[in-house]
Amino acid sequence: MLTISRFTCEGLAKGCVTDERRPRLAFSLESDRAGAKPASATITVNGHQMVLGSEQSVRYDGPELAPRTTYTAHLVATDDAGETAEADIAFETGLLGAPFDASWISDAAYTFADKGASPVPMVFRRTLELSKPVASARIYATAMGIFDLELNGRRVGDELFAPGFTSYKTNLQYVTYDVTDQLAEKNELLATVAGGWAVGAFIYSRVNRVAADRQALLLQLCVTYEDGSRQTFGTDEGWEVTEDGPVRYAEFYDGEVYDARVSLEDATWRRAARETLRVSPRLTAACGDPVRLHDRMEPVSVTHVGDQLVFDFGQNFAGVVELRLRGAAEGQVVRVRHAEILKPDGTLNTDFLRSAKAELVYTCKAGDQSFCPTLTYMGFRYVGVEGADEKDLALCAYPVFSDVRETGTFACSNDKVNRLQQNIQWSSRSNFVDIPTDCPQRDERMGWTGDIAVFAPTACYNFDMGRFLRKWLRDVRAEQLRGGGIPNTVPANGFGFPTTMPSMAIDFWGDACVLVPWALYQAEGDEEVLRENYDMMCRYVDACRFWASFGVGKYRYIWHTPSFLHFGDWVAPDVPKMSQWQSRSKWTATASLQHTSSLVAQVAQILGRGEDARRYAELSQNVSHAYEDVFTDGAGKLKNEFQTAYVLPIHFGMLGESNTERAVDNLVKLVEKGDYCIGTGFPGTPYILFALADNGRADVAYKMLLNTKCPSWLYEVAQGATTIWERWDGLDENGQCPIGDDGTDMMISYNHYASGAIGDFLYKRVAGIEAAEPGYRRVRVAPLVGGGLTWASGSVETVLGRVSSSWKLADGTFEIDVEVPVGATCELLLPDGTMQELGSGSHHASCACQSDEEA
Fold first, then answer.
1. Fewer CB atoms inside 10 A, N or C side of the chain?
2. Of these residues, 340, 359, 726, 770, which one is catalytic?
3. Is 726 among the residues known to form the active site?
4. Quick one: which H or E segment has residue 122?
5. Contact between 285 and 275 (Cβ < 8 Å)
6. What is the pLDDT of residues 699-743, one digit of tens each?
7. pTM
8. Domain spanning 105-243+267-286 has what CATH number?
9. Which residue intervals of 118-211 are DSSP H helices?
10. Which of 188, 342, 215 shows the shortest CA–CA distance to 277?
11. Of 340, 444, 524, 797, which is the active-site residue?
12. 408-767: which CATH number, 3.90.1720.10, 3.40.190.10, 1.50.10.10, 3.20.20.480?
C-alpha cells in the first residue's frame, strides 16, 4: 500500500503563511512493497494542476497568488505498480508585498540611557467593537523590539520573541495570527513591546538602539464578516501607550523584572504617536521556525545554601523557569538567578556570565500565583531562588528554542558516546534561538558564523534545518560587506569587526556563506539554495583570493594577512593562548581558500556556470600546490607540525596520493604522542576523525573518539557534561574551571555546539548513513566497525522519507538492517567488502566479520 508520509508547503506540514509567490510543495512516500518507486504525481492548487514525473517537489507555477488568501493543495501520487495515495494541505498567503493598512506607532516622549541599558517595555492598547458575526480574522504584526499580544485577556499565539532577529536595516518579519475564535463583540487588544535585539542592549559591549531609538509597533487586525464584508483596524494615533505595565524591565542578558501588583487600569495612558523609523527594511511574512516553549522539566534536586534554594535540573539548556507561589504576601520579592555550574561551596557560579545578570525579579501580589517570563531566556542548569520558602514554592522550567523538527537519531553500544549524542542535540537546541547563536547564557548569544560553518552538516542530520538556515542566510546575503567579506556575526547588530574593514574576509567564519548552503544542498537536494547564494559565495571567495594574493610565486596563494585579523585554530587545546590560536591562521586560511574555491567550483558546475567552474577549480588546485610546497617538506611532513595543519589538507584532498599517506602517518604520530587526545581547534575538529578513518587509520580515529582523558569529547562526558563545552578543558577533574588569563576575558561557555560537529562522523561512519547524491536520492550505507562497539543504529528523516541503519556484531558475524525510502536507492557496503544495491523498503544483510580491531 502506498501512503503519503509528509506533504509540505515551504517546509511546513501545517500553519504555513508565506509571501513566496511560487511556494515550494514537497512530499515523501511510504510503501509496504519492496522496491517501490514514484512514477508520477499531480498537485492541484485551487484548480491549477501541476503534473510531476518521479520528482517529489515542485514550485507553484499557476496564476498569481492573491494576498491574505487560503489555498488548498491536493496531491495524488502514483508508484510504479500503479498504486495511488492522496493528501491535502492548506496554506495561506500573507500580504505579498502590499503595504500595511496601519502606521508605525510609539511613545514619542520616551527616551532611555545612552549606553548599556535596555528600555522599559511599552504597552499599547486599543479597544474595538464588532457589529456583525465574524467569519475569519487575522492579525499581522511586527515591531522594532519583541512583542507579546493579548486579546480579551488571552495571549495571542504561542511564539516567543516575535518578530524574530533579522538584519533590521534590510529584513523585518511580520507574524500572522488567526484570532477568529478570540474575538467578541467588544474587544481589548494589548501589545507589550520590549527592546529585544533591535532596541535593547546587545553584544558584550552592550550597545543599544542599533535599529531604532525606541520601541515601535506596526499591526493590523483584518476581519472578514460572514456577509463577506471586510474591516481593518490598524495601529494609528487612536491607540494608547504606557510604560506603567507590570513588566518593569526585560532584556536577553539581564532578564526580566515583573511586578504582579501593577494593574494597567491604574496606568497613565497617552496617545500613541506615529513613528518614523531610521531604517527601511523589507517587510515579509515570517519564514523561519518560531521560538517556542518546549516540554516541561522538573528539577531533580533542591538544596539549601545560605539564604538560597538551589535547584538542579540535571540538564544544561536554554530556557525559562516558571514560579508557582502559594500564599504569597503583597510586595514579597522573589529573586531567581541562573548558572551553568556551581562553586565549591554549592552557590551559583555566575563569574562566566560576564556582565549578564541572568535573573528574574518578581514582586508578588497577595495570594497564590504563577509567573513565567516571555521576553527573555537564560542558559542554565542550576537556579538559585531567594525570597520564598521551599514549602510555598513549586518550580519547573521550559526549554526555549526554535521549533526545528527533529529528524535524526543515533545510538550505539557505548553509553558515553550516546551521552555525547545527547549533548550535541541539547547544545543545538540551546543555540537555535531564531538564529544560530554561539552560547545561550553570557552577554553574547550572537550569530557567530564560525560555529554554524563547521556544525551545519551535523545540524542537518539531527534536525530539519531548511527554514531556519534559509532565513539566516537571507541576512548573511544582506550583510555581506562591499568587498565580499562576511561579518563574523550575522546579524551584525552593532558588532564592529570586521564591518569597519569592508573588504576583510575571515577564514572559516566567513566560510559559512559557502559551507552552510552546501550542507543544506546535500541534505535536501534543492539547487535553489545554491542559486540564491551563488553570487555571495563567489564574491566571498574572490575577497579571500584578494587577501591571499600579496606575494611572489607560490606565496600568491598563501593567505598570510596578519594573524590578529583571523581566529586561526580557535580554542585548540594544545596551545594555551588566544594569540597562539591566531598565529596558525596562515595554515587555516590557506586551507579555507582551497576548500571554499573547490566547493564554489562544484556549485558553478551544478548551476551550469562552466567558466566559473573552471576558474575556481584552477584556483583551488593552485592553492593546494602552494600549501604543499610552502608548508611541507615535499614528502608529507609539515615544517611546523600541529594537528589541524595536517587534518585540513588531508581531508580536503590538497596533497598528492603518496604525500597524503605520509601526512596521515605524521598525523598519527602527533595523535599518539598526544595520547590520542584532541589537539584541533574549530577548523580541524569536524574533520580529524574523517582524515584518519578515511585513510586507513580507523583504529586511531576510534581511540580518539573513545578517549576519556582531557582534552577529548568523552572527557567532557566523564565530567558530567550534559551539553558541549566551548573549551575542551572547561572543568578539571575536580570539577573546577582552570581557565586563566589567556586573552579571552575568561571566555568559557558550557553550552557551545561547535566541537559537537563530531556528530557528522557518528552518523556517516559509525551508523554509516551518508547521502551519496544530494537529497538522499541515492544513499550510501557503510558502517565503520571498530572501537569495541558491538552495535550501532542511526536514522534520518530525509526529504524522501526515513533512512535507517542498525547493525550488530556478535560471534564473528556482522548483521545489519537497512531502511530505504520510496524514491531512493541504496549502496550497502559490508565490512567484508561486499557491495549490494538496494531499492526502497526494509533489508537485512550479514557477513562474516573478524574482531572489530581487525575489521
1. N
2. 726
3. yes
4. strand 122-129
5. no
6. 999 999 999 999 999 999 999 999 999 999 999 988 888 877 788
7. 0.97
8. 2.60.120.260
9. 196-199
10. 215
11. 444
12. 1.50.10.10
